[in-house]
Structures are given as C-alpha cells and as structure tokens.
C-alpha cells in the first residue's frame, strides 16, 4: 500500500481513566488502527531516570491520511468522543496537518522492539531485528498496540499462548483485532488457527498482518463470531445483541472442534458467549479468556462454571484479569 504524503494529526488530552475508551475510538478510525499514547512522566529519584505518573493526564494521537474522506472521519471521531465526554472529562480535539517526514517521525519514535514472556518478540515492521534462535517474532505495525507497550489484556494472552500452544492444535482466536494472538499461535506451532472478528476493519488489518508474517497457510481470518456473538454489534457501541439469545444462532456453534480458544473480549461478551465457547471446545480443551476487569471477574467465573468449564489458572495485571478454563 502506498503511504499517503500528507496527514492529519488528531490529538486529545484525557484523564488516565479515559485512555482506554478514547484509544479504542481513535484506533477504529486512525491509519492502520494505530494510536500513540504519550503518558505523563515525572523525574524519578534516581537522577536522570524518569517514571510514569499514573495521575497525570495522557495525550492520545492518531493520524488520518489527508484524502477525500478525512473531514468525514474527523467528524465521526468528534461525534464518538462527544459521547465519551458525557461521562468523562476530555480536552478539546486538536488537529494539525503533517508532511510525510514529520508524520513518520511523530509516529515511529514511540515504537520499539518489545519482548513478551520468554520467547515472543514484537517487532514494528519498519525496524531491523536479528532473531535469537528460540525467538517467536511477530512483525506487526502498531494496530491494537498501545503506546510503547501492548495492552495488558493482550500481553497476558501472549504469555499464556507461549506455554499452552501444542503442535498441530486447532485454535480459535475470537475477537482477533490485529491478528496478534492468531499469528502467535501459528508461529508457536498450531496446525490451524481460525481468527474471527465482527469488525470488518479489524478483519482487514488482521489479514494484512497474517500475510506480513507469512502464516497464511495456517491462519484463516474471517468476519464473524461464535454462536450468539453473531447477533452482537461493534463492541464499542454497547450492542450486545438481544436480551434473550437466539437459540438458532446457538445451534450454529461448531461442536467440540477446538483444542484451544483465546478470547480477549470484554466480560459481558464472555458471559453471553459462555455456552458457545464451552460447546466449541473439545473435551479436555482449554479456554484463555481475557479483557476481564477485576470487578467483573466473579460474573465470568460463574458463567463458565455453569457451562461445565473448570478454572485452572488466573493471572492479573493491574485491574485486568485473564483466566484459563478446561472443558
Ligand atoms: C480487546 S480486542 C482484542 C484484540 C486481540 N485479540 C488482542 O488480544 O490484542 C477485542 C476484539 O474483539 C472484537 N469483538 C468484540 N465483540 C465481538 C464479538 N461478539 N464477536 C467477534 N469479535 C468481537 C472486537 O472487534 C476487537 O477487535
């Protein structure tokens, strides 16, 4: 794809609590789903060291190619942020036009090689990297990656996949986003990975990343969901499908075909999809669920217990929880 020559930078200052929501909105509209997060830093006690100050406001930026749709997209972002501003204070939306060189610098300085777990290394596609013998290298443009690190919910899943993927397994990545977990599963030796997302933009980005990582033979990316997930709208729209799930959709869930499912969704979606997730797993298969905010953890655990899944592991990072269940 040719890189556009002029860019519109969209920036907004937000409170730390709003970072995630606003970043999701910017990722939806920004080029390649990328968002730069500039956190508030304070000088540390150790001379020139700097520390992140979790109480300071955060700047979020995304970039739009300056084309015929740029104004329409800017208005959509403004509209989505207006909804958020009804609940949380947000700074005014700021825009400026950037030439290609300035954009490349503004954007790329925030990304570097990122090592996760024991062997997984995420390398922005414009950087050179000489892999170590055991490295599992994922070549990814920012996409769902936030700031200088990955989102904790993704990091937790990658650490679990590293330990859990076995050769030739049949894996489902439900809510694939950038495709990161599906690509990791393929490089860790899975035999077949189905990567589903109900957001067409995510599907396009995931497919591009699958091709960049040359795992097309193993990963199948498709637009859609599992069982009653098919009746849900975009995850940021609050459309979780009808209150009474349609039994006809549940009946469409593939039965007992996956050895491993990774589902980095949100608690409410995991709870609704619990019967479909359990049905799709082979007996003895494992479910990695993530995207669970700690106050919702009990609800998710109860929903999984109800469909016969046994909890075998729990991992937390900050307020985020990832669970491993066995059918
Ligand atoms: C938090 S992101 C996770 C992305 C990626 N798997 C990762 O770990 O970084 C959640 C993704 O799930 C998708 N999603 C949300 N609800 C869904 C549903 N009902 N069915 C399929 N995909 C869904 C969203 O579009 C989004 O791309």
From TrEMBL:
Record: residues binding S-adenosyl-L-methionine: 154, 175, 197, 264
Q: What class of enzyme is it?
A: transferase
* Keyword annotations: Cytoplasm, Methyltransferase, Ribonucleoprotein, Ribosomal protein, S-adenosyl-L-methionine, Transferase
- GO MF annotations for this entry? protein-lysine N-methyltransferase activity
Q: Name one Pfam family in it.
A: PrmA
Supply the InterPro entries for this chain.
Answer: Ribosomal_L11_MeTrfase_PrmA, Ribosomal_PrmA_MeTrfase, SAM-dependent_MTases_sf
Q: Where in the cell is it found?
A: Cytoplasm
Q: Which CDD domains match?
A: AdoMet_MTases
Q: Which reaction does it catalyse?
A: L-lysyl-[protein] + 3 S-adenosyl-L-methionine = N(6),N(6),N(6)-trimethyl-L-lysyl-[protein] + 3 S-adenosyl-L-homocysteine + 3 H(+)
For this UniProt entry, which residues form the secretion signal? none
Presence of keyword Ribonucleoprotein = yes
Chief subcellular location: cytoplasm
**Which GO terms fall under biological process for this protein?**
methylation
Superkingdom as given in the UniProt entry: Bacteria
Q: What is its EC number?
A: 2.1.1.-
Listed under GO cellular component are: cytoplasm; ribosome
Role this protein plays: Methylates ribosomal protein L11.
Q: Which family does it belong to?
A: Belongs to the methyltransferase superfamily. PrmA family.
HAMAP family registered for this protein in UniProt: Methyltr_PrmA
Q: Which protein are we looking at?
A: Ribosomal protein L11 methyltransferase
| Biological source species | Chloroflexus aggregans (strain MD-66 / DSM 9485)
Gene this protein is translated from = prmA
